[in-house]
Design brief:
One of its GO terms (biological process) is carbohydrate metabolic process. With 396 residues, the chain is mostly beta strands. The chain contains three helices and 29 strands. The protein has one domain: 3 Solenoid (Pectate Lyase C-like), CATH 2.160.20. The strands form two sheets. The protein has an 18-stranded mixed β-sheet that branches. An eleven-stranded parallel β-sheet has the order 5-8-10-12-15-17-19-21-23-25-28. It is elongated. Bound molecules: 2-acetamido-2-deoxy-beta-D-glucopyranose (4 copies). One 2-acetamido-2-deoxy-beta-D-glucopyranose (NAG) binds next to strand 26.
Length: 396
C-alpha cells in the first residue's frame, strides 16, 4: 500500500511539471535549483533566489521562476525592478523559511520585498514561514531590546501584481503589505499566526489604488486587514477573519498631512471571535485626512467584541493627544446585512469627533444580539439614517 502511494505521488508530480511547462511554453523558464538553491534548507539560498530573479528580470520575454517543493532557507530578499520582462510569474510550491534566529534580520524592515516591479504574479501552494514565535516571546518579555521584526511580504511602488494561493505563517510583523501600488489582486491566501502575536497584521494596504482581496482566510494576532491613508478603490470579498482584531480602516491621523481613504467595499466577510468586526479608527489628533464612500455588506459576526465601531477618540495611555480632537472627516459609510453575535453589550458604537461629526452613516438590515438578548448601540457626534430592520435599536 505504502509503495503504491509513493508511486502515485510520483506520477502526479510528473504530470504536474509537464502541465506547468506546456502552459508556460511561451515563457522563458528559470528554476531556483539551477541557481544552486538548496531544497532541504541545509544552506542559505538567498543568493540563488536573487540570481534567478535577476535572470528573469533582465530577460525581454515573459518569464517563469519555479520554486519546487522543499524547504529553502533565505535571509532578506529584495526583488527590485524595473525589469525588462513584462510579466514574471513566480510559482512557489516549496516553503520559504526565515533564519530561526530573528537577530539575523534585525536591520531589515522586510523579509521578502518587491520594489518598482510591474506584472509580477506569485502563485502556488507553497508557504512563507517567517519563524515569528521567538520574536513574539522576546516582545512579550522585554519589549525594549527586541528588534521591531520584518514584514513577511511587501510590495512597494509596484503595479499589476497578483498573489494567488500561498500561505504566510508566523510573520514577525505584518504578513503582507501593499504600499504605493496599483492594480493588486490577492486571492486564496491563507494567513496564520497566534491570536496573541503582536503587530502581525494580515494584509496592510496604504497609498494604493485598485486593490482586490478575495477568498482568503486570515487568522492572526492583530488586524485581519488594515487600511491606511491614501487607499482608493479597495474591494474585499469572501474573507474570513479570526482570531485577530478584524478589518480596520486606520489608525488614521497619525500625521498632520494625510491622504484620505475612499471607495472601500467589504463584502461577505465572516468574523469569528475577533476584537472588532468592521472598524474605522483615528487618533484624536488634527489631520487633513478623511474617510468616505465605504460599503460594509453581508457580514457575519460570531462572538465579536465590537462588531460595528467608529472610534475617533483613540488616545492610548492619554499620550500625545489629551485635549485634542480628530481632524479626520468621516462620511458616507453604509452598513448593510450585518448579522450575528456581539460578545459585549454594545454591538454598534459610533464615537466620532466633536469637531468633525460623522455624517451620512446608514444602517440597513442589521441584526446583532448579545447573549441571545438585545444588545445596545452608542452614538456620539454622528448623523445618519436607518433603513429596514436594525437591531439593536439604533441611536442614529
Ligand atoms: C497593467 O496591466 C494592464 C492590463 O493588462 C495593462 O494595460 C497595463 O499597461 C499594465 N500596466 C503596467 C504599468 O504594466
Ligand atoms: C478559495 O481559496 C482556496 C484556497 O485557499 C481554493 O482552494 C479555492 O479554490 C478558492 N475558491 C475560489 C472560488 O476561488
Ligand atoms: C470603486 O472601486 C471599485 C473597485 O473596488 C470600482 O469598480 C468602482 O468603479 C469605484 N467607484 C468609483 C466611483 O470610483
Ligand atoms: C435576529 O437574530 C436573532 C439571533 O440570531 C434571531 O433569533 C432573530 O430571529 C433575528 N431577527 C430577525 C428579524 O431576523
Amino acid at each position: 500500500m505504502k509503495l503504491s502511494g509513493c508511486n502515485f505521488h510520483g506520477v502526479i508530480v510528473i504530470v504536474f511539471v509537464m502541465l506547468s511547462i506546456s502552459s508556460t511554453s511561451a515563457m522563458t523558464n528559470f528554476n531556483v535549483l539551477n541557481f544552486g538553491a538548496n531544497p532541504i534548507g541545509r544552506t542559505d539560498s538567498t543568493d540563488s533566489f536573487l540570481k534567478a530573479w535577476n535572470a528573469a528580470c533582465s530577460t525581454a520575454d515573459s518569464t517563469f521562476i519555479y520554486v519546487p517543493k522543499g524547504r529553502y532557507l533565505v535571509g532578506s530578499l529584495a526583488f527590485k525592478g524595473q525589469c525588462k520582462s513584462p510579466q514574471i510569474i513566480i510559482r512557489i510550491d516549496g516553503t520559504i523559511v526565515a533564519p530561526s534566529d530573528y537577530g539575523v534580520l534585525r536591520k531589515w524592515e522586510n523579509w521578502v520585498s518587491f520594489e518598482r516591479v510591474s506584472g509580477v504574479s506569485i502563485i502556488g501552494q507553497g508557504a512563507f514561514d517567517a519563524k515569528g514565535p521567538s520574536l513574539w516571546a522576546c516582545k512579550a518579555s522585554s519589549s525594549n531590546s527586541c528588534p521591531l521584526g520584518t514584514t513577511t511580504l511587501r510590495f512597494t511602488n509596484s503595479n499589476n501584481i497578483t498573489i494567488n494561493g500561498l500561505t504566510s505563517l508566523n510573520s514577525q510583523m505584518f504578513h503582507i503589505a501593499v504600499n504605493g501600488c496599483q492594480n493588486v489582486q490577492i486571492q486564496g491566501v491563507k494567513i496564520i499566526a497566534a491570536g496573541d502575536s503582536p503587530n502581525t497584521d494580515g494584509i496592510h494596504v496604504q497609498l494604493s489604488t485598485n486593490v482586490e482581496i478575495f477568498n482568503s482566510s486570515i487568522k492572526t494576532g492583530d488586524d485581519c486587514i488594515s487600511i491606511g491613508p491614501g487607499t482608493k478603490n479597495l474591494w474585499i470579498e469572501q474573507v474570513t477573519c479570526g482570531p485577530g482584531h478584524g478589518i480596520s480602516i486606520g489608525s488614521l491621523a497619525k500625521d498632520l498631512e494625510e491622504e484620505g481613504v475612499q471607495n472601500v467595499t467589504v463584502k461577505k466577510t465572516i468574523f469569528s471571535g475577533t476584537q472588532n468586526g468592521l472598524r474605522i479608527k483615528s487618533w484624536a489628533r488634527p489631520s487633513s485626512g478623511f474617510v468616505q464612500g465605504v460599503r460594509f455588506i453581508d457580514s457575519v459576526m460570531r462572538n465579536v467584541q465590537n462588531p460595528i465601531v467608529i472610534d475617533q477618540n483613540y488616545c492610548p495611555h492619554s499620550e500625545n493627544c489629551p485635549g485634542q480632537v480628530s481632524g479626520i472627516k468621516i462620511k458616507d459609510i453604509r452598513y448593510e446585512n450585518i448579522r450575528g453575535t456581539s460578545s459585549t453589550p454594545i454591538a454598534i458604537k459610533f464615537d466620532c469627533s466633536p469637531k468633525n461629526p460623522c455624517t451620512e452613516i446608514s444602517l440597513r438590515n442589521v441584526n446583532l444580539t448579545y447573549l441571545d438578548k438585545d444588545a445596545q448601540s452608542f452614538c456620539c457626534n454622528v448623523v445618519g439614517k436607518v433603513f429596514d430592520l436594525v437591531r439593536p435599536n439604533s441611536c442614529l
